[in-house]
Write a structure and sequence with these properties.
heterodimer; A: about 270 residues; alpha/beta; ten-stranded mixed sheet; three-stranded mixed sheet; 9 helices; disordered N terminus; B: about 290 residues; Glutaconate Coenzyme A-transferase; 8 helices; 13 strands; about 25% strand
Chain lengths: ~270, ~290
C-alpha cells in the first residue's frame, strides 16, 4: 500500500456507511451502562451486550442462562453454551441455580431479550404464530428463559427488527408479559420487575407511555421518518412530543462491532 | 454400581418403547451419539424430555422415535428453526407429536423436585403468560397456582419430573463408574438423580478422576450404565476435549429442511454406521 488510492480511503468510507442492523445494535449497546449485571439472550441482544462491553461499558457483567456469570468473550458466542462463556466467566453455576438464586430474587439489573412478535403493551411471543396454540401456522422455539427474565429483572430491554407482522396490536400468544392488558396489570400478577423500558428496533426506539403503558415512538434513526415506523407497526402508533433523532453509530462502535463479527466468523480482523 | 458397557448394550438394556427419556446437556455435552443409537435401535413412542430439544431431538423426532415432547425451548441454537420438530407439530410428520411446554425456570425446578424426591417445586413464574393455561400431557393443567402457607403469597407450582431414563454425556468416568463433568453443567445432575435408570456416555474412562475446578461428580452407585464414546457430544462441544462443529449446525438447517434429504441422512449417517464407530456423524452427501 502506498497510502493513495481506494485502499487508503476505504476504511473511512466504510465507517461512514452502516446497515440498519448495525445502527440497531449500537443503539441497544448504548442502553447498557457499566457495572450492571445483564441477562443476555443469543442473537441481537448478545451482539449488543458484547459491543457495550467492548466500548463504553467494559465492566458490564454478562450473564447467560447456561449459568455463566460474568462471561468475557472476545467474540460473539455461537450459542448460550459456547465454551468461551464458561472459560471466561467469573462463576459457572447450574441451570437451576441461575434461575432460582440469581434471576428470581431480582439480583439482575437488565434483561435483554429478542422476540418474534411484540404488541402495543410490550408483551412478547416466541411460542406460536396463528389463531390457535394447538394448530399453529408457525411453531416458534418457545419460551426458554424469557418469561422469568421479563418478570424478574429490574428492567427489560427488547431488541428486534420491526415489521408490521412482528409489531402487532395483540400477540398471538403471551410467552412473556410486558404490561399485560395495560396499567396495573404487572402489579396484579405479582411480577416483581417493572417491565420493558425500551424496545429497540432497526427503525428507532419505542418506550412505554408512563400513563397508558402503550409503546410509543420516542426516537428514530437518521433518515427514518415517523411514517416509515408507523408503516411497520400493526397498531395506531403514538409518537412522543419530544421525538429524538438518534446518533448514528460512531467509527469506534462500528469498528468494534465489525471486529467482533469478523472474529466470530473465523475471519482475521480486517485492516 | 454402574456397569461399564458398550453404548449399544446400554441403550438396549435401559431404554424401552414407550419410556419417558430425558437426554440433557445445556448446549454443552449433548449426548448426540447416544441419541443416534436410540434411533438405530428404532425405539418408538418415547416421551422425550429436554429443556432445549435442539438438533438432538430434531433427529429423534424426525426418525419417528417420539410421540410426546416435554420441553422449554426448541430451536437450532444460534442458527434458527428446528425443521423436523416444526414439521411434526405443524404437519404431524412422521406422526403426531403431543407437546407439553414450560419455561426454562419451570423445567429446571421440575428436575430439582424430581431429584429431591418431592412431588412439586415452587417458583415465581408463568404469571400472566399463555404457558400458565396450557395442559400437561395428561390433559390436566401443567402448572398450578399455590399459596405460600407462611406469607399468603401466590406462587406457581410445577410437578416433579421423574423420567424412566436419564441419558447424559460427561467428560470422564473412572473404572468403578464414578462420573465427572465440568464447564456448563446444566441440569444433568438433577436429571440423573430424578430418573429411574441412567446412562452416561463419557469421552474417556480413566484410572483416577483428577479433581477439576467446578466439576460435578456422580458416584457410581447413582448411575446404571457408563459407555465410553469419545466424541459422543459431536457436533456440540465437550469442554477440554472438543469444540462445537458449527458447520454441522449450519448444515443441519439444510439437511432437516427437506423430508427426503433428512431420510437420506438417516440412512447414510445413522443406520449405515456401525454402533462401534458412533462418534462424529457426517452431514450426508453434499452436506
Amino acid at each position: 500500500m502506498d497510502g493513495t488510492g481506494p485502499a487508503a480511503t476505504a476504511p473511512a468510507a466504510a465507517l461512514a456507511s452502516y446497515t440498519a442492523d448495525e445502527m440497531m445494535t449500537a443503539c441497544a449497546a448504548r442502553a447498557l451502562t457499566g457495572g450492571v449485571a445483564c441477562f443476555v439472550g443469543i442473537g441481537l441482544p448478545s451482539a449488543a451486550a458484547n459491543l457495550a462491553r467492548a466500548t463504553h461499558a467494559p465492566n458490564l457483567v454478562l450473564i447467560y442462562e447456561s449459568g455463566t456469570i460474568g462471561a468475557k468473550p472476545d467474540r460473539l458466542p455461537l450459542s448460550i453454551g459456547d465454551g468461551i462463556l464458561a472459560e471466561t466467566a467469573d462463576a459457572v453455576v447450574s441451570v437451576p441455580e441461575i434461575f432460582n438464586y440469581w434471576l428470581q430474587p431480582g439480583r439482575i439489573g437488565v434483561g435483554f431479550l429478542g422476540a418474534a412478535q411484540i404488541d402495543a403493551f410490550g408483551n412478547i411471543n416466541t411460542t406460536v404464530i396463528g389463531e390457535t396454540y394447538a394448530q399453529p401456522k408457525v411453531r416458534l422455539p418457545g419460551a426458554g428463559g424469557a418469561p422469568e427474565i421479563a418478570a424478574s429483572c429490574r428492567e427489560v430491554i427488547v431488541v428486534m427488527r420491526q415489521t408490521r407482522r412482528s409489531f402487532v396490536q395483540r400477540v398471538d400468544f403471551v410467552t412473556s408479559v410486558g404490561y399485560g392488558d395495560g396499567p396495573g396489570q404487572r402489579e396484579r400478577l405479582g411480577l416483581t420487575g417493572p417491565g420493558p423500558r425500551k424496545v429497540i428496533t432497526d427503525l428507532g426506539v419505542l418506550e412505554p407511555d408512563p400513563a397508558t403503558c402503550e409503546l410509543t415512538l420516542t426516537g428514530v434513526y437518521p433518515g427514518v421518518t415517523v411514517a416509515d415506523v408507523s408503516a411497520q407497526t400493526g397498531w395506531d402508533l403514538a409518537v412522543s412530543g419530544s421525538l429524538a433523532v438518534i446518533e448514528p453509530p460512531s467509527p469506534p462502535e462500528l469498528t468494534a462491532l465489525r471486529g467482533l463479527q469478523a472474529i466470530t466468523q473465523g475471519l482475521e480482523g480486517a485492516t | 454400581m454402574a456397569e461399564i458397557v458398550s453404548l449399544a448394550a446400554a441403550v438396549a438394556c435401559a431404554i424401552h418403547d414407550g419410556d419417558a427419556v430425558a437426554m440433557e446437556g445445556f448446549t454443552h455435552l449433548i449426548p448426540f451419539a447416544a441419541g443416534r443409537e436410540v434411533i438405530r435401535q428404532r425405539r418408538r413412542d418415547l416421551t422425550l424430555i429436554r429443556m432445549t430439544p435442539d438438533v438432538l431431538y430434531d433427529q429423534l423426532i424426525g426418525a419417528g422415535c417420539a410421540s410426546k415432547l416435554i420441553f422449554s425451548w426448541g430451536g437450532n441454537p444460534g442458527v434458527g428453526s428446528l425443521h423436523r420438530f416444526r414439521d411434526a407439530v405443524e404437519n404431524a410428520w412422521p406422526g403426531p407429536l403431543q407437546l407439553e411446554e414450560h419455561s426454562h425456570a419451570g423445567m429446571a425446578n421440575r428436575y430439582v423436585a424430581g431429584a429431591s424426591g418431592v412431588p412439586f417445586a415452587v417458583l415465581r413464574g408463568y404469571s400472566g403468560t399463555g404457558l400458565e393455561g396450557l395442559p400437561g400431557l395428561d390433559g390436566n393443567p401443567a402448572v398450578r397456582a399455590i399459596t405460600c402457607p407462611f406469607t399468603g403469597e401466590r406462587l406457581t407450582a410445577v410437578a416433579a419430573l421423574r423420567p424412566d431414563v436419564a441419558l447424559i454425556h460427561a467428560q470422564r468416568a473412572d473404572r468403578a463408574g464414578n462420573v465427572q463433568f465440568w464447564g456448563i453443567t446444566g441440569v444433568q445432575k438433577e436429571a440423573v438423580l430424578g430418573a429411574q435408570r441412567s446412562i452416561v456416555t463419557v469421552e474417556e474412562v480413566v484410572d483416577v478422576l483428577r479433581p477439576q475446578p467446578g466439576a460435578i461428580v456422580l458416584p457410581s452407585w447413582v448411575v446404571d450404565y457408563v459407555a465410553e464414546v469419545p466424541g459422543g457430544a459431536h457436533p456440540s462441544y465437550a469442554l477440554g476435549y472438543s469444540a462445537r462443529d458449527n458447520d454441522f449446525y449450519l448444515a443441519w438447517d439444510e439437511i432437516s429442511r427437506d423430508r427426503e434429504r433428512f431420510l437420506r441422512w438417516l440412512d447414510t449417517d445413522v443406520f449405515a454406521v456401525s454402533p462401534g464407530s458412533l462418534a462424529g456423524a457426517g452431514t450426508g452427501e453434499g452436506g
